[in-house]
Amino acid sequence: MDKAIVFKKITEAYFKKGDWERSEKNGKAGLHFLGEILPLKKVPLVVSIIKELSVHLLPSLLPELNTRRKKNAEKYHTIIQFYHSLGWVYGLNDTLKFIRTTLRMLNLSGKHIPRTIERAASLMGYATLCMVIPLFKRSIKYHQKAFELFQELDYQPVVGESLQFIGLFYQWKGDYQRSIDHYQKSLEVFEKIGDINGIKFTYNNLVMNYIYLSDYKTAQSINGKFIGLAKKLGDIYGECSAWDGYGEIYHESGNYKKANECLNKSLKLAEENNIGLVQCTSTINKGKIYLEQGEIDMAILHLETARHLYENNNYFDQYTVQLYPFLAKALIEKY
After folding, report:
1. CB-hemisphere CA count at 13 Å for 228?
2. Residues with Cβ within 8 Å of residue 307, at least 6 apart in sequence
3. Maximum distance among all alpha carbons in the chain?
4. Is residue 229 part of a domain?
5. pLDDT on residue 60
6. What is the pLDDT of residue 65?
7. Same structural domain, 103 and 140
8. Could you tell me if 270 and 201 lie in one domain?
9. Alpha-carbon distance 134 to 155, whole Å?
10. Which residues contact 101 (CB under 8 A, 6 or more apart)?
11. Cα–Cα distance between 157 and 142 in angstroms, integer?
């Protein structure tokens, strides 16, 4: 158990630094000490998803199977804490792994430690998974369950995190003002307890709301705070994402030169550190700029590159959905 806890702390540290590869590597090693196998290749991953989905569905079909054993509670607390950190990594990197991790958390917490912070975190992960599908009614139902349990247990860091994810829920639904309201509430929680990492992630998501609302001045101001914290904490993913955000802000403001400068910085960091999601979104943004400038061949080159990145990985559609309409437009313009 002691070795597993050391690996858990290392896994969390690499996640906060934006080093997903090392976070996953240490997570896999730590889970091994707890008797957990972390499947990484596609076939065992899909098999595990089917298994976990079956386990999730069986209790609702056969309620008598839903036993609530509490043996080895400390072990299951630690396992789910591993999966919680890895869930953040996979949510920004690999949808299939995110699905499997979320279902595994949900099943283990429901069976072994039902009235705990880890159970609430599992409910929150499942609510986010429902957003991805998307099943918004089911998602908000589980987000509320998670939030109520977090409040009951009175652990403020995860209360703030729950508010973040409800903010993301409303952002994905297109209710940007309601999303901002929840992010502001999460910011108040994180500022009160001094959680710099929580503040950083809240800034990151707030930026997108203000971009969608065409309030570029506010978006730029908040993005400045976000990149400042990312650099201070040594978060490579955060810095990379912030440059991508600046690129989108300047693009939407009509400053193509500044937009390209920022997107080039984002792409350099993404390529050097294997941050595929941001590499994909920044390449899409550059393709859009070339399309608007009438450089059709360059637009197609970048958008086809982004398509290759998307189709060879498992990124959330919500962050890449604009790829195909712009690629189609570029191809129509050319042919």
Report:
1. 9
2. 323, 324, 327
3. 65
4. no
5. 52
6. 43
7. no
8. no
9. 29
10. 83, 86, 87, 90, 125
11. 19
- The single-letter code of the amino acid at 1 is M
Q: In this structure, is residue 122 part of a structural domain?
A: no
Calculate the alpha carbon distances from 151 to 105, 146, 156, 193 in Å: 20, 9, 8, 15
Q: Name the pTM for this structure.
A: 0.86
Residue 139's pLDDT is 95
Quick one: 277 and 307 in the same domain? yes
Cβ neighbors of 237 (< 8 A, separation 6 or more) are 18, 20, 92, 230, 273, 275, 278
pLDDT per residue as tens digits for the range 297-331 = 999 999 999 999 999 987 888 888 899 999 999 99
Under 8 Å between Cβ of 286 and 302 = yes
Give per-residue pLDDT as tens, 199-213: 999 999 999 999 999
pLDDT at 264: 97
Query: Quick one: which of 223, 299, 230, 232 has its CA closest to 260?
Result: 299
**Residue stretches of the chain with pLDDT short of 50:** 61-67
Residues 245 and 181 in one domain: no
Hey, which residues does 63 pair with through a beta bridge? none
Domain count, the chain: 3
Cα distances from 281 to residues 173, 266, 303, in angstroms, run: 20, 10, 10
Range of the domain at 143: 131-214
Are 186 and 164 within 8 A, CB to CB?
Answer: yes
Same domain, 187 and 263: no
Q: Do 282 and 316 belong to one domain?
A: yes
The CATH number assigned to the domain holding 281 equals: 1.25.40.10
Cα 43 to its chain centre, rounded Å, is: 23
Which pLDDT belongs to residue 66? 47
- Residue 313 has what DSSP assignment? S
The residues, ordered by sequence, that sit 6+ positions from 235 with a Cβ below 8 Å of its Cβ are 16, 17, 18, 200, 229
Q: Which long-range contacts (CB under 8 A, 24 or more apart) does 16-19 make?
A: 16/197, 16/233, 16/235, 17/233, 17/234, 17/235, 17/236, 18/230, 18/235, 18/236, 18/237, 18/238, 18/239, 18/240, 18/273, 18/275, 19/236, 19/273
